C-alpha cells in the first residue's frame, strides 16, 4: 500500500514527512573532529537555489534541511553535506543513520 500523501509547505510529501522537517529544526549544529559547526539554513547556501521550497526535502527558506537532503551544504567545507569528506567525530555521514 502506498504512503498517504499530503501538501506541506506547498509541496506534496508523504504524510509522515512533516515530522522529519520539524525534528530537523532542532539539529542546529554538526559535530566534526575539530569542533561543532552551525548548520546552513536553506537559502543561505553558497550556491543559489530557485525560489520556493527545497526540491529534495521540502523545507522553506530559513529552515534547516532534513539531514540527508541532497541540497544541504556542509557547514565546514561548504560542499554537498551528504557527500563531503569532512572528518566526523563518530564516523557517521552528515546524513545520519536513517537517510
Search tags:
99 residues, mainly beta, two-stranded antiparallel ribbon, two-stranded antiparallel sheet, 4 strands, 16% strand
Number of domains: 1
Strand residue percentage: 15-25%
Q: What would you report as the Rg, rounded to the nearest angstrom? A: 14 Å
| Arithmetic mean of pLDDT | 89
Number of distinct helices: 1
Unreliable residue runs: none
Distance between the termini: 21 Å
Strand order across the largest sheet: 1-2
Q: Strand tally, please?
A: 4
Please give the largest β-sheet: 2 strands, antiparallel
Task: Please trace the helix and strand order, writing H or E for each element.
Answer: EEHEE
Structural class: mainly beta
Helix fraction bin: under 10%
- Shape, please? globular
Entry summary:
By secondary structure, the protein is mainly beta.
What can you see in these coordinates?
- By secondary structure, this protein is mainly beta.
- The protein has one domain.
- 8% of the residues lie in helices and 16% in strands.
- The protein has 1 helix and 4 strands.
- The strands form 2 sheets. A two-stranded antiparallel sheet has the order 1-2.
- Strand 1 and strand 2 form a beta hairpin.
- The longest helix is centred in the first third of the chain and has 8 residues.
- The two termini are 21 Å apart.
Amino acid at each position: 500500500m502506498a504512503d498517504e500523501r499530503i501538501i506541506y509547505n506547498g509541496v506534496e510529501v508523504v504524510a509522515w514527512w512533516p515530522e522529519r522537517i520539524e525534528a530537523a529544526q532542532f539539529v542546529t549544529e554538526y559535530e566534526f573532529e575539530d569542533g561543532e559547526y552551525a548548520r546552513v539554513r536553506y537559502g543561505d547556501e553558497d550556491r543559489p537555489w530557485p525560489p520556493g521550497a527545497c526540491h529534495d526535502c521540502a523545507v522553506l527558506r530559513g529552515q534547516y534541511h532534513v539531514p540527508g537532503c541532497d541540497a544541504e551544504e556542509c557547514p565546514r567545507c561548504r560542499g554537498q553535506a551528504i557527500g563531503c569528506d569532512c572528518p566526523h567525530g563518530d564516523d557517521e555521514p552528515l546524513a545520519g543513520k536513517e537517510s
